[in-house]
Specification:
The chain has helices at about 1-10, 15-20, 25-30, 40-50, 65-85, 110-125, 140-155, 170-175, 200-215, 230-240, 260-265, 285-290, 295-305, and strands spanning about 55-60, 95, 130-135, 160-165, 180-185, 220-225, 250-255, 270-280. It is of the alpha/beta class. The chain has an 8-stranded parallel beta barrel with strand order 1-2-3-4-5-6-7-8, surrounded by 7 helices. The longest helix has 20 residues, at about 65-85.
């Protein structure tokens, strides 16, 4: 399987330097990360929302080694909130955050991440939107869920992400599928050991469907994070069987992947949210997109051969 190899490469400084230096890299990265600054991303936000789509915005960057960097991440999200308010798009665009970016891995990281993310969640609520806490590797999840629970006391719309490939996730889904909750289900994009996660695609797909059924039959708001046409179809059928209206769940897909499908689902009356990342620290995010789907890797490889 290429996925684990690519994820291992995402932690290699040598491979980071090689890929970053390739002339074609920026062109390919732009497929997934369409800008480095808030100003870069504004036209994208305006275009997507004008076409009936909603967004979740991610300022990329996870390699945080100092409290000052964590504070800078907080400030970058606060600047994004200010811009969304100016554009009057608070109800059309939410934000996704990784707690590692807010200092979770530093000494005292749980409290530091909570202190840094709270102002962002508060500012988001003030303009009519919300924040979803992205899931990272399995060692960080108990802390993420604890932060999520704490934030929901004051900001009940705060969402979280669960990953189908982890053995623990069915239990997490049952706990989270409660009234008022917002839960995004994804397959998972970290290199997890066999002791904690399914390793085969067919097992991950089956777990995804089991967990999605729990969410659809629960009292919360499911967010279906998948580009897989079969899983999208299954999600629609599970929603129908659960008696859910189109505004009682949503689909989420990544910017740059299956854009025609984004528009098709929106045109059919589904809520369709595009996960749109921007920023300068793109490497880890980009490598996980390659690992998630072989077609992404083939796209990159062809570009290197034809343009490098």
């Amino acid at each position: 399987m290429l996925g684990p190899v690519i994820l291992a490469a995402s932690r290699s400084d040598r491979i980071r330097r090689l890929i970053s230096a390739a002339p074609v890299t920026k062109q390919v990265v732009d497929r997934f990360i369409p800008g480095e600054t808030v100003d870069d991303i504004v036209p994208i936000v305006q275009e997507l929302t004008s076409r009936g789509l909603e967004l979740t915005m991610d300022v990329v960057g996870e390699d945080i080694t100092t409290p000052r960097q964590a504070e800078a991440a907080r400030d970058a999200y606060l600047a994004l909130v200010d811009r969304l308010e100016t554009l009057e798009l608070g109800t059309r665009a939410e934000m996704s955050v990784k707690l590692s970016m807010f200092g979770q891995a530093l000494p005292g990281g749980h409290e530091l991440a909570l202190a840094n993310v709270r102002p962002v969640v508060e500012a988001a609520a003030a303009i009519g939107t919300t924040v979803t806490l992205d899931a990272e590797d399995h060692t960080t999840l108990d802390s993420m869920f604890a932060v999520h629970e704490e934030l929901r006391k004051d900001f009940p719309g705060t969402g979280c992400v669960i990953q189908a490939y982890l053995f623990r996730t069915e239990d997490d889904a049952r706990r989270l599928a409660a009234a008022g909750s917002r839960v995004r289900l994804v397959k998972g994009a970290y290199n997890e050991p066999a002791e904690v996660a399914h390793q085969q695609k067919h097992e991950i797909d089956k777990a995804y469907v089991r967990i999605l059924r729990i969410l659809m039959e629960g009292a919360g708001y499911p967010m279906v994070g998948s580009h897989d046409p079969r899983l999208v179809s299954i999600a629609q059928e599970l929603a129908r069987k659960a008696g859910r209206k189109p505004d009682e769940y949503e689909f989420q897909m990544l910017y740059g992947i299956r854009a025609d499908e984004h528009l098709r689902l929106a045109a059919e009356g589904h809520r369709m949210r595009v996960y749109t990342a921007y920023g300068t620290d793109w490497y880890g995010y980009f490598m996980r997109r390659l690992a998630e789907k072989p077609a992404n890797l083939r796209f990159f490889a062809r570009s290197l051969v034809s343009k490098g």
